[in-house]
Amino acid sequence: MQPKTPSPIDMHVGSQIRLHRKMIGMSQTALAERLGITFQQVQKYEKGTNRVGASRIQGIASILGIKVNALFPNSLLGPDQEASGGSEGRELEAFAASTEGFALNQAFTKIKSANVRRRIVALVCALATAGETQTDDTPTLV
């Protein structure tokens, strides 16, 4: 018997819970205590291993100070609520929810100088463009 794989929607909801929890600086333990569950259960929700019930989703959204629909993929929302962006938007959401994306966003927003932020964006864009044209025999800087 094969183990059940988490549903993509359950995984998305879990990653959004994690993202919003981290954005407000709340630990899994603190969220679990407010929900009256164990932190292991919060871990399972965030990984998408366990589904989050409707009343629990409402409780989590309330604790995190967000609307319930902030936890769901845009593709599930009605046409008047769906954000534009398609697959690129989903890729950006996935990156922002990742450990690296979250850390990068958090550090970037702490940079006070708009000029420095613009230069960093230009640098990253240049690196991304260089990566598209790089061949296997081109040396890379590490």
Can you put this structure into words, describing what you see?
Helices cover 61% and strands 0% of the residues. The chain is an all-alpha fold and 142 residues long. It has a domain at 1-81: lambda repressor-like DNA-binding domains (434 Repressor (Amino-terminal Domain), Orthogonal Bundle). The chain is globular and about 45 Å long. Residues 78-85 have low confidence and may be disordered. This is Helix-turn-helix transcriptional regulator. GO terms for molecular function: DNA binding. InterPro entries: Cro/C1-type_HTH, Lambda_DNA-bd_dom_sf.
Salient structural properties:
mainly alpha, 434 Repressor (Amino-terminal Domain)
The SSE string, one letter per element, is HHHHHHH
CATH topology of the domain at 1-81: 434 Repressor (Amino-terminal Domain)
CA gyration radius, whole angstroms: 19 Å
Distance between the termini: 44 Å
In short:
By secondary structure, the protein is an all-alpha fold.
List the helices and strands and how they pair.
Blueprint: H1 8-23, H2 28-35, H3 39-47, H4 54-64, H5 86-97, H6 99-109, H7 114-133
Helix pairs in contact: 1-3, 2-3, 5-6
Pfam family, one: HTH_3
GO molecular function: DNA binding
Protein name: Helix-turn-helix transcriptional regulator
